[in-house]
Write a structure and sequence with these properties.
It is a single chain. By secondary structure, the chain is α+β, with helices and mostly antiparallel strands. 42% of the residues lie in helices and 17% in strands. It has a five-stranded mixed sheet with strand order 2-1-3-4-5. Helix 3 crosses helix 4. The longest helix is centred in the first third of the chain and has 18 residues.
């Protein structure tokens, strides 16, 4: 591997900082929580998480946090994703790949429409941290 320039190091730092900023829930009104239990990871949850980060960057959305959690108990529809948007019910989507991640951002977050083909549950109180 060749030497890395100072500019390349700065680009790498900025890229990683951008990813870390998306995980910060402070001052964000929308949340995406990707289930990263063993079954989720085996089903492609890491690629799903990466797709959300990419799509949010492409759309320039800064009001959405992307975090991860353990198993949501819906192993048969992994990868699973909890989406919380103001004035909408909190929803757990299942079978979320990169294409569905794009659809969630476009429809659920931006247009406030549910993607009924992928709705599998409403989260229990212990996942979202309060009652809705």
């Amino acid at each position: 591997m060749g030497k890395i320039t100072l500019e390349q190091l700065r680009e790498m730092r900025n890229s990683k900082q951008n990813e870390l900023d998306k995980r910060n829930v402070k001052d964000k009104d929308c949340r995406i929580v990707v289930g990263m239990g063993t079954c989720g990871i085996a089903s492609g949850a890491k690629q799903t998480l990466d797709a959300f980060i990419r799509v949010l960057d492409e759309k320039g959305l800064t009001n959405v946090s992307v975090t991860q959690t353990g198993c949501m108990g819906l192993c048969y529809v992994e990868p699973t994703v909890l989406v919380c948007v103001p004035d909408m019910p909190d929803i757990i989507y299942g079978n979320v790949d990169a294409k569905v991640a794009e659809e969630i951002v476009e429809k659920h977050i931006l247009k406030k429409e549910l993607i009924t083909d992928h709705v599998f549950d409403r989260p229990s109180v212990d996942i979202v941290g309060g009652s809705k």
